[in-house]
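Q: My collaborator sent me two sequences in one message, no labels, and asked for predicted structures for both. Can we handle them in order? The first one she listed is below.
A: Yes, handling them in the order given. First sequence, followed by its structure tokens:
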Amino acid sequence: MYVLSGYDMVGEHVLVCVAWPYANGPLHLGHVAGCYLPPDITARFERSRGNRVLMVSGSDEHGTPITVTAEIEGVSPQEIVDRFHAVNTQALIDLGCVWEPKIDPRGVEYGGALFNRTSDPSHIKRVQENVKSLYSAGLFEQRTMEQYYEVRENGTGRFLPDRYVEGNCPTCNAEGARGDQCDTCGATYEATELINPKSKMNPDAKIEIRPTEHLFYRLDLFQSLLEKHAEDRWPVWKNNVRAMTKQWLDMGLRPRAVTRDLEWGVPLPFDDDQFDGKCVYVWFEAVQGYLTCAQIWSEKIAISHPNGSESWKNWWCVDEEGNAPRHLYFLGKDNIPFHTVIWPALIMGLNMSMNGLNSPRLPEAGDLHLEDNVPAMEYLMLAGGQFSKSRKHAIWLPSFLEKFDPDTLRYVLTINMPEAHDTDFNWSDFVEKVNTELIAAYGNFVHRIMTLAARLPSENGLSPLIPFDDLSLNTEHSNKLQELHSSITDSLERHRYKEALRTAMSAAQYGNQMIQAAAPWSHLSPENDDLERKASLSTLAFGWRIARFLSIVTQPFIPFSAQRLWSMIGQSGEVTEAGWDSAIDWQVPMTWTGEDAQPLFERLDLEQILSREGNVANEHVEDEGPSTHSVKGSSRPKKDGGTVSNEPEGITFIEFDQFMAVDIKIGKIVSVDDHPDADRLYVVNIDDGSESGRTVCAGLKDYYSPDEMLGLHVAFVANLKPRKLRGVMSEGMMLAADDGEGGVCLLTVDSKINPGSEVR
């Protein structure tokens, strides 16, 4: 067991509840951005703060989405759920989500995680026990309800559960609305309210409304308590959570059906014949998984916990002093009312039945706790269209992870996370953010620190930066990093993930600016060992501390690269073992590996990706005219394919696509040497925003001395095919103006722009 530096052994109990994905297909990037990446970031952050975190979720394996998929494929529902539970579990682990190990490395008393499945017999048993308990408490009423029935030609038929019926939404009139909810506007309703209803599986079949007996949960009994609860949570809930909860409460709660005419699901725990062929409605069953999953984790995995099989209560129950664990629920916006209205009502019902009460109450000592926050996300769109399993409009997570570093996805989805409004995913933006942010800012900073430090002498394998490590010379920088750390912490506490990540990335940008100003490459030689050299190399040494800072504060977001950086700077063990506040511990001894610095990320090629992935990201984008704000890599076609006419004499026009194929970027000249075998050529090393930089051969000896070129920010062609010039591989071409009269001048830009920036 390890102890997080800077923290006591006692930490807050935090329950991270993650929406249960239907096991009817692979997860897509919309699922990841909305439901599965935010809780993982939160769990990692809370763990690093020393809190005791239990994260629970699993595959939702019952309900009509499963049976619909099974019918379409002509297989059993069990085959479907077995296949996709395995696929999705592995994909989430490959993404870096902390579902493994199931017990926190600090020890079982610190929690862990369990990604379960609703077909687990223990889950089914507990749901049935809860149903009987609520039934005994008088919280159900039996009603005759009207439901669509599919009539077959031979006189037989079947009742059609919600997702077996489609039609026009009664609220917004959108086509293809499900029988229980509209994906377009988010409205919920009864299937009988649909306009132009049809059987999803047999659109031409005759459907009619028939009576059927079902159990209804008395939501109406909890109206006033839920209003009081919502009022209490109002200051921390996001706007979308407030709005949807208020809409439900303002309409007035009414009993809601908890059973369905469907054999695939949790059977009702009653022997009465009238309940044959009926099961617990999936909405009523799956939300209980947050509780049953914690109980199963406690019973089967955490048995060594001091409280044994009752340890789940640490994360679920209010203690005798009135202290409650902290409950966080992560889901998409379409599921908000189920977590702010229905699930709290169900929890209060369980508390009521457990205590033998005649009326419900808000939780007290010994009771199950209600949610503290529901940081629900909006939708991640795919080039303007909503990700959809059913419409096959998606980029699937397992397929994505076969081709790309998971941290690149984690980074781009976080920086574009749909926190307050829908956001969009497209390949050009993905490539740009990886190449110009992760590589050009984060990776470039780390590479500069490590390669410059490696040019200093090292004794006995110790860090060559130790002699220059002087915090008194870097108080301005340490104060800045402490401000950034506080800001990142505040953002994560408020579930503002992209704000937190942007701030973390600004530390790398600040580090680049700091190193640029200090110019340590000019002071590596000990020949001029003066105060200026000491100050410059002291800044370089603090750069190592910024690298360590980055490793700790970025591990919730990009854990794999954070660990690579942690190892690269010589820190032992796992970066997750480092306490959150240790990122700003400036007394940590400097470590060193002596190994060559390796790139943290690989540069991506947009054209290569598009040729491989196809144009799925452009499926729902209407043709538009040319935009004055178009960027290279834009996939929007011209509205008309007409050619440009009336060309001025003497000018040969090129097509727009030809121009867009030229990749012009900004680089900083870091060294200029004579070519070993060409009198008029320089060998110029350029910082191009990548970790390795590039070499360019330039015929500029007649116009510039090496000193005049050093430090210039120049424009260069980045995608010119490399070629050898007198034995030296040249990887691009710097751009220069030529007046035709012997005057040549490099095209330069203000030094405020970062190397690797694109010219558009």
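Q: And the one she listed second?
A: Here it is, processed independently of the first:
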Amino acid sequence: MIKTLKNLLKQDKERYTVPRKVQDVIPVRRIWKDGIFQVGSRFSKTYKFTDINYLVASREDKESMFLAYSELLNSLDSGATTKITINNRRLNRANFEQSILMPMRGDACDVYRREYNQMLLDKATGVNGIIQEKYITVSVCKKDIEEARTYFARIGADLIAHFATLGSKCTELDAAEKLRVLHDFYRQGEEAAFHFDPQDMMRKGHDFKDYICPNSMEKSSDCLKLGEKYCRVLFLKDYASYIKDSMVTELTDFNRNMMLSIDVVPIPTDEAVREVENRLLGIETNITNWQRRQNANNNFSAVVPYDMELQRKESKEFLDDLTTRDQRMMLAVITMVITADDKKQLDSDTETVLAVARKHMCQLAVLKFQQFDGLNTVLPIGGVYIKARKKMADGESAFACAIPWQVPVLCHVRPFEYYDGLRDTLTKEEFMRECESKCTGSVDNPLLRDQYVQDAKTLTIMEDRHCGDPNVRYYIGYDVSYRQRNGNAMCAEVVLKTYEQRRSTSFKKDCVYLTDLPPLDAERQARRIKNRWAQYRLEGAPEPIIVIDSWQFGEAVVQQLHRDLGDGLPPLCTVNNDDRYLDLVQKNAKPCIYSLYATPGRSGADPNIDMLDYLTREFEHGNVGLLITNVHEGTRAYKMAHNIKDDTQDVKIQHPYIKTKELCDQIANLRRKKTGSGWTQEEINKHINKDLWSAMMYAARPIKLDEDAFVASQNRRKSSYQEAAEHLDSEITYAPVRTRSVRRLGRGAIV
């Protein structure tokens, strides 16, 4: 990744906290009177600039304006993020009349003043009373407010000078003016009610967010409700290689309250040149390897494929733009929000906006489950919170030559936003395979063949509680984690449902639920495990079994499970007669903990070998079932089975299906390694964890013991043939046998 972009992503990384009130949704932490806002670790300042007569200008004037605008973009600091915002809002008639219109004086000229004021109103508001305002927001990461104030003083002077060249007037916004912009958006229809006095606020001990936040906020998967208004955030998913300059104008010439923002991240020229040179070298290497393969097949007249040649050509042109034409590499994110009075009108306006984008060969898309983040990105605050922007559902991320994702970005084949979105949509392993051309698995002696794993994906409905069948039993495998290690700070939890199969001595093992959880102290982890155990309990059915590695920190968790935690659930105890916990067993304890040591060398041998051999064999025999990895299909099947029509639970429902994909990736990253006594598993990529797979192995350990006991009990029974033969023998009476006389007819003859 480009160094500048990596630093920006690191600076923007914040710890997520669940909002408990409406004010918590607004990401602004502190404000100052001069208009500087602190958003996360960044400081931002907003400037307002007036429009210029670009559309009615001549061709020569348009070219000069375009060059001046390009110079403005090239002057942006690479260490900062610049947001250009176009705000369509309904006119506050009272404020407009007070500031613009001519007051009446009570003389004979009042007639002309009224006519003049009416002309101003008609010109400014148009048909539907919509006015358009334009802002530019600069955000930068600085040590303190003094450094930020010095930086904005320099940047502000440059912006004012460049906008003056364009024929536009650029002015700074103070805290009250910027808060008014946010207030008018959050509280549409209440624009005249805004009043902000910093001295009065500090004297009363109020928060500045109290003056701008709406009365309520409601979220769904694809829209938000701010008070009585509905809004929806969209983002530019894909765009054509050439875009007309009238596209933004057509999007914003919509007679609705809306806001469009363009976030620009400039990249230093030296980094961009170095990145393009490296990628160009990779393309040349791929072409050389392709020609070498063709020559080996005696095909000396083969022409380089068109896609390879196109990538080489565009990479060279882009390199020339950077080195000879004094151009800069920039990454942009385009988002917009539209508002309406009701949901029906919002859907209609959304289709209109999407149609305008399709007209220009661009593709806008609605943010799913990220409406809050998208809204904070659109507003002129200064932050960029969108990460997931494109789902891989159509195979569009694949491209020729197995080159990394940076090459299509630099060659303008794909936008950066496309691949940046895939980082959160795909798992880490999938992104490494699909976009970074890195191997996350091995065909050389894999732990499990991919076909076995694919054949196991037969479950469409996940089970987050007992299914109601008293003949099934649940096993909960739990992999303990208590500290940061190898980039992993999660505990893994896998639930296996077992039941007998006809004409088979092996149980069917269905992985019906799996998740990973952040590590906490031993008591809180024990509470989570007991809550999960309680969800899979059913009167008259076998008790669920908790399988946990009781080595080191796991022992502390097991000890907490033996206690009465005051959560209304009984204390638990071990079922495998572990002598370490005999003193902790209480009278009303439920025997449902299987304690094991999964650490090699603890018991003299590696216990994972037996579990590995058993679980891989069950996969090969088709006795293991996994959830499907099609998240949308699984969610739809679950909601239909439970008659759920609310979309707010979709994230919770999708979680097990997403984690199933991670489990499959972890299996693909494992291969068999020969040891002195046999074999064991080995991670191909050390940066990919195997916690879900380990939890699944733990759960399989007592299942193997139960299967062995089941087979032994079946062997002690008589077969159906033996039972039928004995029953028949008891009902039949036999007559006494008559002895026949023997006569000698001759020597050696007997009759």
